[in-house]
Task: structure prediction
Amino acid sequence: MYLFSLTMNNRLNTAKGFLIILLFALAHAVTCFLTHGTRLGDGIWLTILTIAMVFCLIRFYHSPFDVFLGLAFMAVFAGYFLGSSGARWMSCAKPGWGIWNNVIVTSVTTILLGTAVLLVVQKKKR
Result:
């Protein structure tokens, strides 16, 4: 219902925001797949990508830097909690999927966090 109440320009901006989120979800998935089994692991890279996604959304919507700090802090901790909990649950539910459990959970978590950030920065603009 929310999407139908937006003007055409706002719909275009929302679509661009979701495109940013989907591109970062893809980057998270590829990073998780390539670095999960390495000695360093995927945690640091996924954290950097999450902060970069929040930064891109903040810059796209011209929000102030203090909003970025708060949302980046929230997104990193929420992403770690949701990702870790989701990966444990998926590993129990589908143990044969291996690394794909982490890739799926990472992508879904990124989309959820990105959508939450998008809704916050859009609300601020109106």
In short: The chain has one domain: 3-125. The mean pLDDT is 88. The first helix runs from residue 8 to 35. Residues 3-125 form one domain.
